[in-house]
Amino acid sequence: MGFPLRFLSSLSLCLLALLLHRAMVTSGCFSMEREALLDFKAGIHDTHNRLSSWTGHHCCTWKGVTCDTTTGHVVMLDLRNTFDRALGGERMMNSSLLALSHLERLDLSFNDFSGIRMPEFIGSFKKLRYLNLSSTRFMGGIPARLGNLSSLYVLDLSVALYVDDYGNGYPVDNLEWLSHLTSLKHLDLSWLNLTGVPDWFSSVNMLPFLQVLTMYAAGLNTIPASVVHVNFTSSLTWSYPS
């Protein structure tokens, strides 16, 4: 007994879709993600040509870009600066990156963001597990939308806000968003000015899986006396000014 034409037609469409997907993955990367990366590049001052490999269709081979070997989606963007070859530019952080909806790791550490605010759209990367904005020196505060990153394991915000030559950092006035990052294991808030956050410990204390907490030079000298219960794991290691 033969197969119904409707079944064969559906099967053909499924096979065609699989072949097209495979061709798209093996050809380099998804066009929407590639265009987003190129738009990101267009807003960057790259005086040392760190992104010179960002040409052609094979964006999964570009320096700093990693794709999932199965799906072909971009899952990591590692643009950590080394040897004083900082990337910069007022348009560097534009929302075109939201096309990287499968992003799991984002490292922009040690690049020059002086003069622009930390973009709120970073809080829209729902699958992000690792975020490193260390020594990026953004102006302004920390957007509360970072609290949407409930899958984060690692968050490094050390010197993420501007610090002047006298060690004075831009004041942070709210850390309540931290309490929503319930998967967090590693948190670094060093060199953030937390003197205006009297309830900082309450927010940090809501992170049950936290294992590493670093808070050098955050303007804090004591743990609030109102703390009656510590919610940390027994394996917590933390660095805190005495």
Summarize the helices and strands and which ones pair or pack:
Layout: H1 5-26, H2 31-42, E1 65-67, E2 74-78, E3 105-107, E4 130-132, E5 154-156, E6 186-188, H3 200-204, E7 212-214, E8 237-239
Percent of residues in helices: 10-25%
Question: Could you tell me the radius of gyration in angstroms?
Answer: 22 Å
**CATH hierarchy class name:** Alpha Beta
The percentage of residues in β strands lies in 5-15%
Please describe the biggest sheet, giving its number of strands, its sense, and whether it closes into a barrel: 8 strands, mixed
Report low-confidence residues grouped into runs of 5 or more. 13-26
Distance between the termini: 81 Å
Shape: globular
Oligomeric state of the chains in view: single chain
Structural class: alpha/beta
Instruction: Please name the fourth-level CATH homologous superfamily.
Output: Ribonuclease Inhibitor
Total domains, how many?
1
Q: How would you describe this structure to a colleague?
A:
- The protein is α/β, with parallel strands linked by helices and 242 residues long.
- The protein has one domain (32-239): Leucine-rich repeat, LRR (right-handed beta-alpha superhelix).
- Helix content is 16%, strand content 11%.
- It has 3 helices and 8 strands.
- It has helices at residues 5-26, 31-42, 200-204, and strands at 65-67, 74-78, 105-107, 130-132, 154-156, 186-188, 212-214, 237-239.
- It has an 8-stranded mixed β-sheet, with no helix packed on it.
- Strand 1 and strand 2 form a beta hairpin.
- The longest helix has 22 residues, at 5-26.
- The relative contact order is 0.09.
